[in-house]
Amino acid sequence: MPEPMDPGALLEVRGLRVEYATSSGSVSAVADVDLKLAKGEFLGVVGESGCGKSTMLFGIAQLLNPPASVTAGEVWFKGENLVALTAKSLNALRWRDFSVVMQSAMNALNPVHTIGYQFRDAIKAHAKWSDTQIRVRSAEVLQLVGIDPVHLKSYPHQLSGGMRQRAMIAMALLFTPDLIVMDEPTSALDVVAQRSLMAQIKELQRQLGFAVIFVTHDMSLVSHFSDRLMVMYAGQVVELGSTRAVFDDPAHPYSKGLLDAFPSIRGEKKRLTGIPGAPPNLAKPPSGCRFHPRCPVAMDRCRQDEPELYPVGMAQARCLLHDPAPAAVKVEVES
Ligand code: SF4
Question: How far is the CA of 306 from the centre of ligand 1 (A)?
């Protein structure tokens, strides 16, 4: 019997693993992710390209396509394990209970149909509403994201990039779901449009109470909006804690490196430093701590000992610097 869900959680991910089947064997893109998301919470997921953040999101939403698949773990959402559901049962939950906003609205929206037609299509696939109900709700959600309902008659190419992303968010809100997962929804926009869309998502979340998992490579973007931050590196969660704690005092050297790599609009001017090297090949990850070849404070044991997620204050970090049992003690116990 699986353990019951934490009653305070909306989503509970347990030991989620995603692998890609390749001609030279399986490649672990996401390794053993555990996560509890509260109702109405905003979680930011950050990391460099290829760290597994979007793959994890797709694994949670059950949107993976071969050669990627969930090979272990459970995703509990409102009392159901999404990993074990049939396509039909998943379809019943999508849009109504959780929805997904993709990176590029231009790819997600159909260029040959109007926005109104696409809203209508999504509603008809999940509910038996009258034409009037569909029209009223479509206009309502478009207004919610600050777009004049006259644009229900517009084609995607007639809207600006920011408006297209807003239309995607409006579509995700058609049934007022409890959870919206967002995969870099602002990455194609300029900085001003990005900030304004983020502020709007936050305001909608405040009004409607849905939870958000927001994937981005830009840590600064989520800094003012997320309640908690998950930092991923090489398919693993390397730090998870309140956004304030991670920004004020990052516990993992990789989080610190990410923070030092983007400019702050407050405080003293300082030289930006990147993280030397490149993320590892996941088909052959480094031994011990996966970050050790790039870590500025790596110790000898980092090359062979695999760190776990250790508690650090109210956060957790996958770094041997926070191992409560020092290596010497472990050797004594083992000998
Ligand atoms: Fe750096 Fe070692 Fe911590 Fe890994 S375990 S982040 S190599 S100090």
Answer: 9
Count the neighbouring beta carbons within 10 Å of the beta carbon of residue 125: 10
Q: What is the pLDDT of residues 159-188, one digit of tens each?
A: 998 899 999 999 999 999 999 999 988 887
Calculate the CA 54 to chain-centre distance: 6
Token pair of 108 as six digits: 């997600």
By alpha-carbon position, which residue is closest to atom 3 of ligand 1? 319
Instruction: Tell me how far apart the alpha carbons of residues 53 and 155 are, in angstroms, rounded to a whole number.
Output: 31
Helix, strand, coil percent content, the chain, rounded in steps of 5: 35, 25, 40
Q: Which of 201, 174, 180 is closest to 119 using CA atoms?
A: 174
Q: Whose CA is nearest to atom 7 of ligand 1?
A: 292
For the entire predicted model, the pTM comes to: 0.92
For residue 321, the CA-to-ligand 1 centroid distance in Å is 7
Q: Is 250 in the pocket of ligand 1 (CB under 6 A)?
A: no
For the CA of 299, the nearest atom of ligand 1: 2
Cβ 292 under 6 angstroms from ligand 1: yes
Q: How many CB atoms lie within 10 A of CB 21?
A: 12
- Overall size of the chain counted in residues: 335
Give the whole-angstrom CA distance, residue 185 versus residue 309.
Answer: 29
Give dist(CA 132, CA 252) in Å, integer: 53
Q: What is the mean pLDDT of the chain?
A: 91
Residue partners of 134: CB distance under 8 A and separation at least 6: 119, 120, 123, 124
Q: Which of 207-216, 234-243, 274-283 has the lowest mean pLDDT?
A: 274-283
Compute the distance between CA of residue 164 and CA of residue 155 in angstroms, rounded to an integer.
10
User: Is the minimum distance from the CB of 5 to ligand 1 under 6 angstroms?
Assistant: no
Q: Which of 6-10, 77-81, 90-94, 177-181 holds the top average pLDDT?
A: 177-181
Ligand 1 midpoint to CA 49 (Å): 20
pLDDT band for position 153 (cuts 50, 70, 90)? very high
